[in-house]
Amino acid sequence: MSIIGEAILTASVELLVNKLASEGIRLFARQGRIKDDLVKWKKKLVTIKAVLDDAEEKKTTDDSVKLWLGELQNLAYDVEDLLDEFQTEAFRRKLLLGNGEPAAAHDQPSSSRTSTKSKFRKLIPTCCPTFTLQSIQFDYSMMSKIKKINDRFRDIEEEIGSLKLIKSSAGGSKKARQRRDTTSLVEEAKVYGRETEKKEIVELLLKDDSRNDGGFSVIPIIGMGGLGKTTLAQLVYNDKQVEDHFDLKAWTCVSDDFDVIRLTKSILLSIASDQNVDNHDLNKLQEELKKQLFGKKFLLVLDDVWNENYTDWVHLSLPFQAGAQGSKIIVTTRNQD
User: Sorted alphabetically, which keywords does the UniProt record give (predicted)?
Assistant: First the structure.
């Protein structure tokens, strides 16, 4: 599935959740006795939406997840088409009701036949104003379509567990996002279609930065959740040319818990596994990190950065100034700033 396709899928699910909550759909659902079905659809879509980020991240290395996303996309289109049919039919019935006979026979003179019609109409509940052959045929057709969609929803929801998809979207809990840690390891044989992007980033990493006064430069990989930012960073991190170019490499997953002490410890352990990082003194930790980086060309990956606080970034980056010219930091993030 392309990047555009992934964005469309996320937007489609969001659109369906909103459409199912709309007044027109809810009114028609009550009239057509399908309220329970639509309520279930909305709940299922919310559940599915919560795992979309994880699914779209994993689909680059798991064909089963890629197939699941394709089935979900098709289902989203079919549900949207069906809801459009509901809205069209609701509008037709509203027009039919508006063009009907007067509700009360004594409002105006009429023939006995018209009077009988008016009396008959008063016996039909207002919630079911269009008891016509066309309406009956529509309802019968919809019941069949609803049943098929219920079955497809059930299958897709059941696969969430078997595919081990995690609630990792912005709509998920903070605790769920923190549990989703990442590492630098990647199974390259199962990654397809990222050669061009990988080559571009590798070229940036190997590029001479003699005009950069900061000692290091930052390369951001930006995009919405599920676009494979982590996978791309992993591919670059493990590239042979990159391995040979840098003296030190470190990988740390940031997530939404931008704790400077935790991150400093993680970076230290990544470049010097024998270091004792039991203390919580930020000054001592950063002095040690500065010593480890001094005069060395390093590559650091900060994966899944959510924090936009500039002060936190300044505190974390102080030891990085000790690195040699040409050091690089890759940041994967959803934020443009």
Answer: ATP-binding, Nucleotide-binding, Plant defense, Repeat
Tokens linked to 187: 């199974």
Taking residue 218's Cβ as centre, other Cβ atoms within 10 Å add up to 14
Burial label, 197 (beta-carbon count in 10 A; 0-12, 13-18, 19+) = middle
Of 31-45, 95-109, 208-222, 267-281, the one with minimum mean pLDDT is 95-109
H or E element that contains 65: helix 63-98
Q: Which of 63-77, 100-114, 162-176 is modeled with the greatest confidence?
A: 63-77
Q: What is the pLDDT of residues 263-292, one digit of tens each?
A: 999 999 889 877 777 777 889 999 999 999
Average pLDDT of the residues in 246-260: 87
Most confidently modeled range among 14-23, 105-114, 208-217, 280-289: 280-289
Sign of the CA dihedral running 121, 122, 126, 127: negative
DSSP for 230-292 reads HHHHHHHHT-HHHHHH-SEEEEEEEET---HHHHHHHHHHHH-TT-------HHHHHHHHHHH
18-22, 51-55, 128-132, 332-336, range with the lowest pLDDT = 128-132
**What is the CATH architecture assignment of 181-333?**
3-Layer(aba) Sandwich (3.40)
What does the alpha-carbon distance between residue 4 and residue 308 come to, in Å, rounded to a whole number?
26
- Pair 289, 269: CB distance under 8 Å: no
Residues with Cβ within 8 Å of 83's Cβ and at least 6 positions away in sequence, in order, are: 16, 19, 20, 25
Residue 58's Cβ-count burial label (10 Å; 0-12, 13-18, 19+) is buried
Strands of 298-305's sheet in order across? 216-222, 327-333, 298-305, 248-255
